[in-house]
Structures are given as C-alpha cells and as structure tokens.
Design goal:
The protein is of the alpha+beta class. Helices cover about 30% and strands about 15% of the residues. It contains two helices and six strands; from the N terminus they run ααββββββ.
Length: about 170
C-alpha cells in the first residue's frame, strides 16, 4: 500500500466552513467602511468651516451664504489656505439635492428669522451617506440661502437623506 499524502475531504470541508463563517462575520462591517470614512471627513469639514466662519465674522454677521466648495468661496470669506491648501469639497463629489447652483460641498444658511434676538446667526450643513453618522437630522431645502433657523425643526429623518448640522450663535 502506498503512503498517499494530501488532505482528506473532511479537512477541506472544515476549512471551507471556517472561511465561510469568517466571511459572514467580517464582510458586512468592511463593506460600509468607505462611506463611513467619507461621512467622518464631511463632519470634520463642517466643523472646520463653521470654526473658520465664526472667527472670520467677529460681528456674527456673514455677508455671503450658500454653497462652500471648490467653485464657491462664500464671497471670498474662505480660501484654500484656510483649510491646508485645498478648498473643502465633498469626498465623493456628491451634489446636494435641490441646490442652486449645483453644490458639491457644504451649505451655509443665513437665519431669516424676524425675531429681534435670533438664537442662531447661521448654520453649516453637509449631507451624509449613512444615517447613523449624523444623528438622522433631516436635510433642509438647499434651494434657498436663507431659512428660519430659530423655528427649524431638527427632526429625525425617515428619508434616505440625512444631514450633519452645526448651528452658530
């Protein structure tokens, strides 16, 4: 009788079973990682932009509102050197829904409340890919530069479009 070397059928099946279990456990977590990383970058960029606008506007009044991306600099308020040499832009170059003109970055809203004392001066907003990253805040209509931030309902969104919002006083 010859001494045959190799793997038995049971050993091969065990290896396939173990690899299948590992794939089922690890793949779902790995598949969402790129979009979560882009959302993390969006959140960091919103915070940078809000901080820059807060220090630029010592009176708390912005003269320009709307889109902040590669093509729009809020009337010269922001420049590439403010953000490490490059303008802030959406990591996936996604266009904000209903934005006019088309905006692939972040949106700054002016508070158009008629109250004599406004709670907030402006808001910086980014649309996220994953609802769980931004607290499921529903996105405003990006077709206008001004909304009433004092009455804005930061409600939980049941839609697929969720936003990260920084309200500035």
């Amino acid at each position: 009788m010859k001494n045959i070397k190799g793997f038995t059928l049971i050993e091969i099946l065990l290896v396939i079973l173990i690899l299948g279990i590992l794939a089922v456990v690890l793949l779902p977590g790995l598949l969402g990682s790129p979009s979560k990383a882009r959302d993390t970058e969006r959140i960091a960029n919103v915070q940078k932009l809000a901080g820059k606008l807060a220090t630029t506007t010592t009176t708390g009044t912005l003269l320009s509102y709307g889109c902040a991306d590669l093509s729009h600099d809020l009337g010269g308020l922001i420049k590439p050197s403010d953000f490490g040499g490059k303008m802030l832009n959406d990591p996936a170059n996604r266009t904000l829904l209903n934005s006019n003109p088309a905006c692939t970055g972040y949106f700054v809203f002016k508070n158009n409340s008629s109250e004599s004392v406004q709670k907030y001066k402006f808001a910086v907003v980014a649309a996220l890919e994953n609802p769980q990253n931004g607290g499921n805040i529903s996105c405003p209509d990006f077709s206008s530069n001004e909304i009433n931030l004092d009455e804005w309902n930061l409600s939980t969104s049941s839609t697929t479009t969720n936003c990260y919002v920084v309200l500035m006083q």
